[in-house]
Amino acid sequence: MTEAVLLVGGKGTRLQPLTINTPKPMVPAAGVPFLAHQLARARAAGVEHVVLATSYLAEVFEPYFGDGSAHGIRLTYVTEDEPLGTGGAIRSAARALSARPGDPVLVFNGDILTGLDIPDLLLRHERAQADVTLHLTRVADPRAFGLVPTDATGRVLAFTEKPRHPDEIVTDQVNAGCYVFRRQVIDGIPDDRPVSVERETFPGLLADGALLHGVVDGSYWLDLGRPASFVQASADLVRGIVHSPAVPGEPGEYLVLPGAHVERGARLGGGTVVGAGARVGAGADVQGSVVLDGARIEAGAQVRASMVGTGARVGPRTVLDGAVIGDHSEIGADNELREGARIWCGTAIPDAAIRFSAV
Fold first, then answer.
1. Are 73 and 39 in contact (CB under 8 A)?
2. Which of 89, 120, 179, 274 has the fewest Cβ atoms within 10 Å of its own Cβ atom?
């Protein structure tokens, strides 16, 4: 049986206000919680049992996913009372695994969207007889990631977590947030304190002579840590740029969920999602955006690359461009919010109060 640990305990601070009321993996992308896409891809790869390592707002996961049977997978929930870091969370979740010491265990970060071939990663792990195999990807600017240089055989040579100086940037290969551990390696992680798998576990294993294998993969990969990336991920899922069996519809330029109402003359495109019970008024233009359940986009509004929270309202002729509107906020008519503007949940902005806002 193939088992996996999915790390979904983070607070999602960089995604606020999207994560004020909702943990990051439960924020909707392409019509369903992002976690549903990860579980669907794991199931399609042959994973039968997933342990969800929860912490922040842990109580919201099980009511939605239950025991996993409705999603074709068995789920177990392990909750940290105090955050234990990535390594500590993996070690804590391991008590719910049935894998034997030498068996492979997949570990996924809960904020990565990828087209990775998971069965191939498992196969290459076994062929390398590695203690840990890491999915690596190449990025143009690796400064915000953990660098992982490898030799010609794929053997990991070092770890540099988020380099601070130019001379530390020795590769464009970065940790892509998916691993295969031998179960016995997980059992060696301390269980009585917080542990970072990136800063402590992996470098420690390397220093002890363990075989860490890196698999560089060029498929779709996106870190959803920022609102702009989350909106892009949703649009890419809707358009079929990256495939997920959990998308509730065929690939296209927009996805309108049951109960939503789009008035005649409104324009949707770029992978836009209109959530259940949401309304888009006549003449509104919504491109590459996420409009969550019960939100209202009034007549003539322009919304691009933005996220409009549950129950929020965007007034007539208001322009959003790269903005995030928190749940149940009221944005009056004739406002303009651009370039990363974030409006907190429940905020009310009067008509024509903001002509340009950026953070």
1. yes
2. 120
